[in-house]
């Protein structure tokens, strides 16, 4: 419940910031508008990111990959994300294993600047998951260990946060976090990754005009 409350607070803050930026910075031209740093960025932005990192599900650690394409219109953002994760044996106790992946369509709000993107979004995903874990029951003197296996393909609700540092156009780096809420919420996997970002988010430079990164 605390995780859900924190996500609601973060979304509310980001929505307020993006709404304020959009209200106070009206379009200078049809193709662009002024961001909060008073630099001209494109009204439309395209961001493609690929990252690798660490994941966790039901206390089991692993590694993951995250691929995402995001289309931004002003301070609104629409994304497709594919994420996949698997556990690593030396991170975990014996008989602890999981693998998971999802394909998702998401929508949310973004705070965009010439060299920055902060976005928070949620959506619908199709998730596959395999999970093995151990529990023990019975008397303390003679415990009984039971291995349970959980496997299902189902609809889930991923919530994603991205923080990208960008050059004027073309390339950047960043962080991508995702928490995929599944029907049995205790099995919801957490994904995180360091990303390389490519795309176009600023208005093309004018010929003969020098602009810093």
Mean pLDDT across every amino acid position: 80
Walk across the major sheet and give the strand order: 3-4-5-6-7-8-9-10
Q: Which band does the percent of strand residues land in?
A: over 45%
Taking the sheet with the most strands, its summary is: 8 strands, antiparallel, barrel
Structural class based on helices, strands and sheet pairing: mainly beta
Radius of gyration: 21 Å
Q: What is the 3D form?
A: elongated
What does this structure look like?
By secondary structure, the chain is mainly beta. Helix content is 11%, strand content 62%. The protein contains 1 helix and 10 strands, in the order H-E-E-E-E-E-E-E-E-E-E. It has an 8-stranded antiparallel β-barrel with strand order 3-4-5-6-7-8-9-10. Strands 1-2 form a two-stranded antiparallel ribbon. Strand 1 (32-34) and strand 2 form a beta hairpin. The protein is elongated. Mean pLDDT is 80; it is low at 1-11, 13-31, 33-38 and 207-212.
Short précis:
The protein has 213 residues and is mostly beta strands.
Key structural traits:
213 residues, two-stranded antiparallel sheet, elongated, disordered C terminus
Layout of helices and strands, plus pairs?
Elements (H helix, E strand, L loop, with lengths): L1 H23 L7 E3 L5 E3 L1 E14 L2 E14 L2 E12 L9 E17 L2 E22 L6 E23 L3 E12 L8 E11 L13
């Amino acid at each position: 419940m605390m995780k859900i409350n924190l996500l609601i607070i973060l979304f509310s803050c980001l929505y307020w910031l993006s709404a304020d930026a959009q209200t106070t910075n009206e379009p200078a031209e049809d193709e662009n508008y002024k961001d909060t740093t008073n630099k001209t960025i494109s009204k439309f932005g395209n961001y493609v990111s690929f990252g690798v990192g660490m994941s966790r599900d039901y206390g089991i650690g692993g590694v993951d990959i995250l691929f995402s394409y995001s289309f931004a219109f002003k301070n609104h953002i629409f994304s497709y994300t594919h994420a996949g994760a698997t556990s690593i044996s030396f991170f975990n106790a014996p008989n602890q294993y999981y693998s998971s992946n999802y394909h998702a369509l998401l929508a949310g709000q973004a705070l965009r600047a010439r060299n920055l993107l902060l976005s928070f979004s949620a959506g619908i995903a199709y998730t596959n998951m395999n999970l093995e874990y151990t529990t023990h029951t019975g008397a303390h003197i003679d415990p009984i260990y039971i291995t349970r296996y959980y496997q299902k393909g189902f609809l889930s609700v991923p919530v994603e946060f991205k923080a990208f540092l960008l050059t004027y156009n073309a390339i950047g780096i960043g962080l991508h976090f995702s928490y995929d809420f599944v029907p049995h919420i205790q099995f919801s996997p957490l994904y995180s990754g360091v990303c390389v970002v490519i795309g176009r988010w600023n208005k093309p430079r004018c010929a003969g005009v020098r602009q810093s990164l």
